[in-house]
């Protein structure tokens, strides 16, 4: 693990070149000596506070005013998602400004260990939550306005019967995101905030999540390193890695360069948060791989199973892309952020539109970021900032031996974008679920593709026979529902939402 975060610059000095939000900030709590974030070797390093301050100033971004989770990516250690309804708006508004706002962690604060709080806090509101606060301005996103429950069929979910009941409808007004390095710190922060908020809100549902233990930190429950290909954002990322997509800040943040939609002025530097609770059937997935190894005279049965899993994802568990290491894992490649994204699916002597010996057209990472499949330069319109985290326990011995899940586990999926239609919704409906993207007959994404519970016929998974199809009768990732939220800037909370 590496931490490049400076521990010497205080928050006050970081703000000198940036506009100061017009709201009162709480005093910085006792200084940390270790980061609350994880940083696996394969992930591009976050910028230091000084680096971020410099590039933000050049781009006109105010990192003191942007909630901390938005640009950080999949680096949380422990996290709690606390979903609530506003029981009494008149009582909640002063508590939002007086009790919640001083605790909200900005991007700048998270970039330096010395300014990180014991527990970071962010907040976001659904459309019904904004309505409860008497905020009637349109944010220019119909998917957000309608809520995720209305979008259920478009996302390929079979029905709401598999959803967590609290997500079925529009009853959730908001979500508080607590992040720290221990559950005890989070639990203390939750207790303290609940005491301060009193009866102004009602807890509806919560989900505890955390990085997997030891060397598995950064890996999702199927075992694959996750979050490697998050984009670099102009005005935040100081040194983009080779092959890392570089997007305008308006791809993620409202009313910044790259966001062409008309927004109310107060919504600037907010973002839409797509939350999904994605149950993963890990024992079933592993049993499928074991039963269907790719047969190659140079591979053992176990290696053939590992290869099938890698081709379904598009990466080996180490993070190494199959496009660069087609038959065997290369952990050194996977751990190197200067190389593990530096590919385009093009290869000398091979035709892009027919070559699946390197990476299947259906592979998860190719479905969700087609790179050269859609031409060059790469279209940056459909990038999101993923900030999810695993939830649930490790697979038990009895689950592994039976090949059957008995305790729920999965991914608390979080994606930030300035347009749900161009971001998460597009990636799920138009690319992952589309059997004819990027080529006719490709099949749905074998990992997240969802066809309302119907079986999926996927092509190209066997490198020895690209014409062979594989029929998946089980959705190894099952949606348990979610909601669309708006995460406002800190100044918007002070000037619009709490008055």
From TrEMBL:
<keyword id="KW-0560">Oxidoreductase</keyword>
<keyword id="KW-0575">Peroxidase</keyword>
<dbReference type="InterPro" id="IPR006314">
    <property type="entry name" value="Dyp_peroxidase"/>
</dbReference>
<dbReference type="GO" id="GO:0004601">
    <property type="term" value="F:peroxidase activity"/>
</dbReference>
<feature type="domain" description="DyP dimeric alpha+beta barrel">
    <location>
        <begin position="65"/>
        <end position="213"/>
    </location>
</feature>
<dbReference type="GO" id="GO:0020037">
    <property type="term" value="F:heme binding"/>
</dbReference>
<dbReference type="InterPro" id="IPR011008">
    <property type="entry name" value="Dimeric_a/b-barrel"/>
</dbReference>
<dbReference type="GO" id="GO:0005829">
    <property type="term" value="C:cytosol"/>
</dbReference>
<keyword id="KW-0732">Signal</keyword>
<feature type="domain" description="Dyp-type peroxidase C-terminal">
    <location>
        <begin position="355"/>
        <end position="432"/>
    </location>
</feature>
<dbReference type="InterPro" id="IPR049509">
    <property type="entry name" value="DyP_N"/>
</dbReference>
<protein>
    <submittedName>
        <fullName>Fungal peroxidase</fullName>
    </submittedName>
</protein>
<dbReference type="GO" id="GO:0046872">
    <property type="term" value="F:metal ion binding"/>
</dbReference>
<comment type="similarity">
    <text>Belongs to the DyP-type peroxidase family.</text>
</comment>
<keyword id="KW-0349">Heme</keyword>
<dbReference type="InterPro" id="IPR048328">
    <property type="entry name" value="Dyp_perox_C"/>
</dbReference>
<keyword id="KW-0479">Metal-binding</keyword>
<dbReference type="Pfam" id="PF21105">
    <property type="entry name" value="DyP_N"/>
</dbReference>
<dbReference type="Pfam" id="PF20628">
    <property type="entry name" value="Dyp_perox_C"/>
</dbReference>
<feature type="signal peptide">
    <location>
        <begin position="1"/>
        <end position="19"/>
    </location>
</feature>
<keyword id="KW-0408">Iron</keyword>
